[in-house]
Amino acid sequence: MQHERRDVGLLAAGSLVSVAGDSAAMVALLLELRPHGVGWISAALGAELLPTVLFAWYSGRVVDRVDNRRLLVIGLAGQALVAVPLAFARAPWLVVALFFALNAVATLVRPAANAMVPVLSGEMGATKGYAWVATGFGIGWIIGPALGGVVTSAAGVTAALGLDAATFVVMAGGCALLSTTRTHERTSESEADRHGGMRILRGDTVLFFSLLTTSIAVGCAVVDNVAAPFRFINQLATSSAGYGAYLALWGLGAILGAQIPRRLAPRHLPALLAIGNGISGLGIVGIGLAPSLGVALAASTFGGIGNGIATVAVNAFVAERVGPEQRGRAFAATSALIQIGVGVGTVAGAPLTSALGAGHAMTAAGGLAALLAAVAAVWFGTTSSGSDLLET
């Protein structure tokens, strides 16, 4: 038990450091590319999203075949090696190319870390393990952008990106200290071993439907991210401090929401995922309709709580429904679905905000997420009982 807590704590701390470093680096990169025009900023955003989708099939299979502790150490060391030249790159094409390479290596690290959680925490404690990791993620998400802005302003882009490289080294060292690893011994390749991650997910109707609705909810949240600066600064007449408070309170809500699934039995995971997506959507609707800054900030906290619930529930649900030997592929495919939602939301956010106005765009996006969550919750309730839903 002591080893389990220590290992999960290391992974949660690694999540905090990783997200803080990556967020700080993203701020620095966008500031570096801004003088070169919006096209290069869009290219950088694409370089962040595309590797997860393009390499999901390959990365998931590697995660299911290779010792995951060793894979994490090698992958994080590889990210550090890519981050060093990225810190000194100045030509926009080179910055985007190296950023793509950095995220390509991350396609091995993320599913390996997710697949490791039930191994480190024990199968029965997986939801609690994912809650700890999500808590680290939330804290890093709050700290990272502010850290990136401060470091970039005080010491320049190279220092901020160098800090990101250092976080990968720290994380690699932490993963090397894990007392347990995940391996899948094979004497011969079975039919199930040849299945890709997306095929594994599609083979479970309840899980796949849950992930599709979650992907759409994430896309709606990205529309919220695009519209939020215009909503808070132009329509609610606040300053950059008010916009920063929105980001911080959403992150704080996510940390609070991540603590809820750990207190519930696994049979509640499908409904809990739908509820989390629904709360997140209603929070976005609240921001869009808010008559004042105070109401909008309260809605931000509420939406963040839903985001935190869904973040933990989606990982725990995948682990609950998928066999241990297939989880690398399942988590890689899940990440691909989520990133598709992010991509669609990113593309749709600007034209929706221009056509409808920031407030109405947020209301429409949040309303869609809440509506789909309600449909999912009703479907889960009518398909079968909670215990039946979790039978494979």
Can you describe this structure?
By secondary structure, this protein is mainly α. 83% of the residues lie in helices and 0% in strands. The chain has 15 helices and no strands. Helix 2 runs antiparallel to helix 13. The radius of gyration is 20 Å and the shape is globular. 55% of the residues are buried.
CATH C-level label of the largest domain: Mainly Alpha
The CATH topology name of the largest domain reads Growth Hormone, Chain: A
Strand content: under 5%
Q: Please give the radius of gyration in angstroms.
A: 20 Å
Computed structural class: mainly alpha
Helix-strand string: HHHHHHHHHHHHHHH
- Give start-end ranges of low-pLDDT stretches: 385-392
**CATH architecture descriptor text of the largest domain:** Up-down Bundle
Shape: globular
Q: What is the averaged pLDDT score?
A: 90
- List the domain count as a whole number: 2
Give me the count of strands: 0
Give me the number of helical elements. Answer: 15
Oligomer: single chain
N- to C-terminal separation? 28 Å
Short description:
The chain is mainly α and 392 residues long.
List the helices and strands and how they pair.
Elements: H1 2-33, H2 38-54, H3 56-65, H4 68-88, H5 92-121, H6 126-155, H7 157-176, H8 197-202, H9 205-235, H10 240-257, H11 269-289, H12 293-321, H13 327-356, H14 358-383, H15 386-389
Helix pairs in contact: 1-5, 1-6, 1-7, 2-5, 2-13, 3-5, 3-13, 4-5, 4-7, 5-6, 5-13, 6-7, 6-10, 6-12, 9-10, 9-11, 9-12, 9-13, 9-14, 10-12, 11-12, 11-14, 13-14
